[in-house]
């Protein structure tokens, strides 16, 4: 494909992703989004949080990995479930847990415009699996709407340089915290004020 044509296709795809995300206004609009476009708007939401996005291009069977996210040396596998699967159960999480274990990544993320069953919530609680249901997805989308894509290496030197983002889990304004132990000691990050009830976090 000629370079100019490829550039045009990429620009159009970028415009589609931005329009899909910025056009969302409610859980109903999320649920009305066609399944493939739903995947694109989820990808755009994470992109604006500073993640590098890799599309799986039909890797695996239905129910497998839709997106791979990378940021700050961590890798996450994402599966998107549209409204036709309103209640996501534990079998989906077990499958994703097997995939993330086989690929040696840091976490799995399941995104749905619906909800998760009690069994799914219980399974996720003991494993590195992040669950984003309809209300949390809407909060995530609204927190990044009309924002330019964040560059993964962008740094924030003071809290005043960036308005507190909304928690992608519960929607509350986040607070800036400092890692106190481990390999990232001293690094700043945004954490949910409701911790430990809510464990939402994101890099500064």
What is shown here, in short?
The chain is α/β, with parallel strands linked by helices. The protein has helices spanning 3-22, 27-31, 35-48, 90-103, 118-125, 134-144; strands at residues 52-55, 67-71, 74-81, 87-88, 107-112, 115-116, 129-132, 175-178, 188-191, 201-203.
**CATH architecture type of the largest domain:** 3-Layer(aba) Sandwich
What is the CATH topology descriptor of the largest domain? Trna Endonuclease, Chain: A, domain 1
Shape: globular
Structural class: alpha/beta
Q: In the CATH hierarchy, what is the class of the largest domain? A: Alpha Beta
Q: Could you say how many structural domains there are in total?
A: 2
Strand content: 15-25%
The overall strand count is 10
Q: What is the straight-line distance between the termini?
A: 38 Å
Strand order of the largest sheet: 1-2-3-5-7
Radius of gyration: 17 Å
Low-confidence stretches: 149-161
């Amino acid at each position: 494909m000629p370079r100019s044509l490829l550039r045009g296709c990429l620009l159009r795809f970028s415009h589609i992703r931005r329009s899909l995300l910025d056009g969302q206004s409610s859980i109903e609009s999320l649920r009305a989004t066609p399944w493939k476009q739903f995947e694109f708007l989820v990808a755009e939401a994470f992109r604006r949080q500073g993640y590098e996005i890799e599309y799986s291009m039909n890797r695996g069977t239905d129910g497998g990995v839709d997106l791979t996210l990378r940021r700050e040396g961590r890798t996450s596998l994402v599966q998107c479930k549209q409204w036709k699967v309103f209640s996501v159960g534990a079998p989906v999480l077990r499958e994703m847990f097997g995939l993330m274990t086989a690929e040696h990544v840091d976490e799995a993320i399941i995104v749905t415009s619906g909800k998760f069953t009690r069994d799914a919530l219980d399974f996720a609680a003991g494993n590195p699996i992040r669950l984003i249901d309809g209300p949390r997805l809407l909060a995530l989308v609204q927190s990044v709407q009309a924002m330019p894509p964040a560059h993964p290496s962008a740094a924030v030197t003071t809290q005043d340089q960036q308005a507190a983002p909304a928690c992608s889990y519960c929607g509350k304004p986040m607070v800036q915290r400092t890692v106190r132990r481990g390999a990232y000691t001293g690094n700043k990050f945004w954490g949910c004020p409701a911790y430990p009830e809510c464990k939402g976090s994101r890099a500064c």
